[in-house]
Amino acid sequence: MKIAIVCYPTFGGSGVIATELGMSLAKKGHVIHFISYKRPVRLDLDDENIFFHEVHVPKYPLFHYQPYELALSSMLVELVKLYQIDLLHVHYAIPHAYAACMAKHILLEQGIKIPLVTTLHGSDITLVGSHPFYKPAVTYSINNSDFITTVSKSLQKDTFSFFNIHKEIQIIPNFINVSYYNSIKNDCNRNDYASDAEMIISHVSNFRPVKRVLDVIESFNKISKIIPSKLMMIGDGPDKTKAEKLAYQYGLLDKVKFLGKTQEVAEILCFSDLMILPSQTESFGLAALEAMISSTPVISTNSGGLPELNVHGKTGFLVEIGDIDAISKYSVKILSDKKALIKMKKEAYLHSIKYDINLVVPLYEKTYQRALDMFTS
To answer: Whole-structure pTM over 0.85, yes or no?
Structure first.
């Protein structure tokens, strides 16, 4: 198949999943055209089956905000015709599904029929899409996609709750490259970050308010008074400065490392003993899955898709949103019992391999084939 994948190019979960999906499909012989406003951070262009097209938005004095959706839909039309694309797969309802719907209708007027698969990832539904201003456009985009997938039962439920959707929404979970993470473990060197007597706790996010990074600092302040430990804060975003100030106020700057955006998340997680993910909501929780495949138990909120992934008492623990005392209590419980920690690390890993990329990508291939069959029957 010749597949066009539209995604955000950032470190966020949707962009990572879309990129990994496309690269995996290319290795299986499909021709993949990535389309975004810049090259996705994890995209490897060495494969001869992978192409990248950058969306350029012309700047006109007339426009206060440049019309990205217009540029994207126009590029999709041209690429479909130029490369004989078989199928469009867009990640995120806004603006990608909306732009793809426009392209699909333009192509139809030119006698070209092309199926559209839309994958919903989370904030496009729960935060942006549910806003009254965007609701009609999101509803239109979903209902005019030929196939819709989402990453968890929770997000599927939210989509039907927020919008008047009259189509099936298939659940295809996020995935992890098990082989890659297993190879990282061979070069795992924790001594660069902590002594043998210290435990290592990690947090990975985009530091937006919804991730509640201040809860991580608050919790670590309690934990570190009982358990000798270091905290790795991986990522960047609007709440990073607030987190740094809070760590300073508690006198924790010698114990908390703010590592910013990094391509070495797997290398850090491989020597972590625990991950704290206190998000207000997570449609799936890719950071939690990345921790688990690294044999790192997770303490997360009982919110969104997280309880579908993190098994309470087995792969980690679930707490209510904002319950810092519970986070601290469970963290100390895990880290103070070496035997229990080893067992939970093993359980986290064994559970995570169910989400191996080689098990999940075929589900997308089946959806693509259904879409193509629908258009050729």
So the answer is: yes
